[in-house]
Amino acid sequence: MKFDLSTHTDTYTVMSSGRSTLSTEEIYRRNDYPDSKKACCGIARSCHECPNELQISMEGLSGSLIHWLKTFNIEGVNGPVESFFDGVVISKVLNNIDSEFFDEAWLSKIKTDAGANWRLKVSNLKKILKGILDYYNEQITGFRMPDVAALGEKSDIEELGRLLQLVLGCAVNCTQKHEYIEALMGLEENIQHDVMNAIQELMTTELPAPTYQSETYVDLNNQLKGLTQDLHSTKESKEQITQRCHELDMQ
Description:
Elements: E1 13-14, E2 18-19, H1 24-29, H2 58-69, H3 88-97, H4 104-107, H5 118-136, H6 148-154, H7 157-171, H8 177-184, H9 189-203, H10 215-250
Antiparallel strand pairs: 1-2
């Protein structure tokens, strides 16, 4: 599995007060707006016009990736955002993605009774991050790794987004990737857009001009194009089935 990951420079800040900390309700609300052209606050048509001066965010991405996680039939996946900070649900998702690699022996190392003990949370998250990096099987460069200490101790939503982005990378590169792509197509379009952007960040990089046509770059670009085609193909099939059902109902 080859990735040469790019650095994502977008941040989610409130200019007047520095780094923002959003409530669970705000995270979900900002990812439920019907008009994909609106800013993350749902008021302006773009973040540049937003009266709150909010930029496109890792926190907003976290909300979309949490929506994506809810497509898994996993115990606890429909809980509040806070339920993801100890790594237990995330470890179960990884086990679902590839039960041979993230097997029961690996899963048993995750402490399920961390509670409010942030040290146990961080320990779980470190094991998860190491497992993901081992799954990629190559050094990941150019992508800011999640700070699992900040995630476990401070419940940092941006760091959760970074970690979930790596989980997403596992899903779209496993043997069952078409199953997860199909589930992705059932999400709202604005969430699909966020998730696709997250995939694109994982699979592309701003390489110097002379290396743009290197084997690695071409391979990654082809993977992204193929994934995009899979998404469109699944969407078209879904629309055709819906249309056929409608025609049968009219008979």
